[in-house]
Design goal:
By secondary structure, this protein is mainly alpha-helical. The protein has two domains: 56 residues, Homeodomain-like (Arc Repressor Mutant, subunit A), CATH 1.10.10; 130 residues. The chain contains nine helices and two strands; from the N terminus they run αααααααβααβ. This is AcrR family transcriptional regulator.
């Protein structure tokens, strides 16, 4: 077994946990199973994290949020821009069904825990909201617009819809229907955003 720094070993164990949880579900990610996946003694997991809860917290912190590039969308009509943005977003979250399922499993698992676990779940959700909110604000700035709705509420609406579509897609694996719903949402949202356009 290669000698690694404590920090590198922690990263290795987080990655092993993600691999197990993505492939077999979060319940399968026992400390023993994680140690086997990482190829380390059982005690190494306890040494690096102290508890299973601390390891799960590190896994939640490692979840990367989708990057939404809005740099070229201001040249498109609103509906086309939103459709393109949602399509790019969907390509990221929809590229791996099991990884998306892990995010929902993590949120449910952490939300059932104590105050510390629920705070980790809230932080994970805040990072998701933050990524979308940044994209909404950058898009408005590129257009020189003041949005007719609160950008934070708009970001939360987008997440609510995309999460709903994602959960249904995880169950049905119906890519065409998921894409069709997102296109309808883009059309409806464009109607709201274009109804009142004020200069920034």
């Amino acid at each position: 077994m290669a000698r690694l720094s404590a920090e590198d070993r922690r990263v290795e164990l987080v990655e092993a946990t993600v691999r197990v949880a993505v492939a077999e579900g979060l319940d399968a990610a026992t400390v023993r199973r994680i140690a086997k996946e990482a190829g380390v003694p059982l005690g190494t997991v306890h040494y690096c994290f102290g508890s299973k809860a601390a390891l799960i917290s590190a896994v939640a912190d490692s979840i990367e949020q989708p990057l939404i590039d809005v740099s070229s969308l201001e040249r498109l009509p609103t509906e086309e821009a939103l459709t393109a943005a949602f399509r790019a977003y969907w390509e990221q979250i929809g590229s791996d069904r099991r990884r998306q399922l892990l995010i929902y499993e993590l949120l449910a698992h952490l939300s059932r825990g104590g105050p510390e676990s629920r705070e980790i779940a809230r932080n994970l959700m805040d990072r998701v909201y933050g990524a979308v909110l940044d994209a909404v604000r950058r898009y408005a700035e590129d257009l020189g617009r003041t949005l007719p709705v609160d950008p934070e509420l708009l970001a939360r609406l987008i997440i609510a819809v995309t999460d709903g579509v994602s959960i249904a897609w995880i169950v049905t694996s119906d890519d065409a229907r998921a894409q069709a719903i997102m296109e309808i949402f883009a059309r409806l949202l464009a109607g709201v955003l274009d109804a009142q356009v004020d200069p920034a």
